[in-house]
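Changelog note: in this version the structure field was regenerated for every chain. One regenerated record is shown below for reference.
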Amino acid sequence: MFAVSADSDAMTSKVCRMTAEIVDQLASCGLKQSRALTIEIVDSISHPLGDCIAYFDCEYDVIRITDPASWDALLADDEAYAILPTDITLRAFLTHEITHAFVTMSAPDRNIPMVDQEYIAASMELEFMGRNWRDALLAAVDLKVPPSEGLIDILIYGFAPRDFGVNAWRHFRLPENGCSLVQRIVVGDFSFAKFGRP
């Protein structure tokens, strides 16, 4: 169900191993794959929103991730992810984009709003990160407010994606939320979209 393309056998094997683990973890939250997915490690990514490290192309079921060798420049201003080892960051980005893919596959007959997609992807990215590394990332972001539904807004994601991600995960971890909330979003019973924003 996966095809991985990279410049080296070592990178291909690494991505395959990580992907197999991520698929099992996402399944524990009810997110499953229903069609083939391609993962490409590429020199750079052209995206309408500008330079990015990782991107899920829902039209072709392709995840593209910029080669980690190029990350120094791309992560220069990202204090949170710049402190993590490359493999931890690669796995986090893979988790995020595979989550986007599985959420899209789970709702083939409708468009899930971007804010909901990013909420789920950010939550899964941090939920399945090793605790020590997650604690280091949380300390680097240093979000001083308690988890709040009011901060789950696509405009906040656009201006402060790391703050959005930390708040999303902390909101996900509240006892009344978790995987049950993820499933409500996927089936269309709940959405964070407000005021007509996506």
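Spot check on this record: The longest strand covers residues 37-42. Strands lie at 2-5, 37-42, 54-57, 62-66.
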